[in-house]
Amino acid sequence: MALPLWLRLTLGVGLWAVVYHFWLPFNVWLFHDVLHLGDSRWASALEFFVYDSVKVLLLLTLVVFGVGMVRSFFSPERTRALLHGRREATGNVMAASLGIVTPFCSCSAVPLFIGFVEAGIPLGVTFSFLIAAPMVNEIALVLLYGLFGWEVAALYLATGLLIAIVAGWVIGRLKMERYIQDWVLEIRMGEAATASEGLSWAARASYAWQAVKDIVGRVWPWVLAGIAVGAIIHGYVPQNFMASIMGAGTWWSVPLAVLFGIPMYSNAAGIIPIVQALLEKGAALGTVLAFMMSVIALSLPETIILKKVLKWQLIAVFLGVVGVGIMFVGFFFNIVLG
């Protein structure tokens, strides 16, 4: 006899929560207490890859299933109708503000970004969220406050939020929806006529699970490839070399720090200790913060994952607009606090 739907969903969500909650301590126990791999660079890279691969895929599955359930009530057309009349700039502010209170790294934010695109949310609004979610969050603010005081934390919050809002608005003004990958548009347009009235909960859950199989089935190789790149770089970051070229005395230190940061991958909590180490070695605050912003908002792994969703033209615009904003912040901090 099949279990009732509510019980299956409860058990599924409960199992997801248990795995997600205990995955970090289990990962630490496995690598340090069982395998005894130590703290070598290759061990750090391997541990990073295993932990983040499971974490991001868990998030991807949950978000896609949740968005699928919501979309069984609200088709893309209905979603757009609900948003009709709202100024896009208001949407950018709301999305960026939402990003601040969602503690996602760049790769973890991509699943929700996919859901926004699928649901027909304006492209510029989705990018405001994608930028703000990893760049500015409560973990970064608390750590910056503890290390450098409330002035630096407040300035970081204001400039990060401004980048997310303005960059999203600019991308929205460019009208680049045609550069979303065709398969995403096909899902979005193909589900336009899905009737939301009269569906049973079993049918809605089946619809959401099918969305998980379709979307996760397409994206997971790119997720693993992106995290693998980040893990390799995570284990072999040339910290001393970067500190030597991040002084405030040269104008090119800020753009160079951004270029160094883009291929790397970490969340805010992971990159703050590196920021502190770089500052202790004489790097300028504005340059280091520009480096941090580029690592957590413009990471190469995130770009690789986005390539499955967006065409290269839109990815290039995203990198360019946000990169210019981050460089502005770096120069601004160096001038104001120099």
Q: Any descriptors?
A:
0% strand; 338 residues; mainly alpha; globular
Structure description:
- This protein has 338 residues and is mostly helical.
- The chain has one domain.
- Helix content is 77%, strand content 0%.
- It is built from 16 helices and no strands.
- Helix 2 runs parallel beside helix 5, helix 4 packs antiparallel against helix 8 and helix 14 runs antiparallel to helix 16.
- It is globular, with a radius of gyration of 21 Å.
- The N and C termini lie far apart (71 Å).
- About 2% of the residues have low confidence.
Could you give the topology of this structure?
Blueprint: H1 5-34, H2 41-71, H3 76-83, H4 88-100, H5 106-118, H6 123-135, H7 138-148, H8 150-173, H9 182-190, H10 201-235, H11 239-244, H12 253-261, H13 268-280, H14 285-297, H15 300-306, H16 312-337
Shape: globular
How many domains comprise the coordinates?
1
Secondary-structure-derived class: mainly alpha
H/E order of the elements?
Answer: HHHHHHHHHHHHHHHH
Q: Please state roughly what percent of the residues sit in beta strands, choosing from under 5%, 5-15%, 15-25%, 25-35%, 35-45% or over 45%.
A: under 5%
Helix amount = over 70%
Distance N to C terminus = 71 Å
- E-strand count: 0
Mean of all residue-level pLDDT scores: 75
The low-confidence runs, each spanning 5 or more residues with pLDDT under 50, are 189-195
Largest sheet data: none
List the total number of helices.
16
Radius of gyration: 21 Å
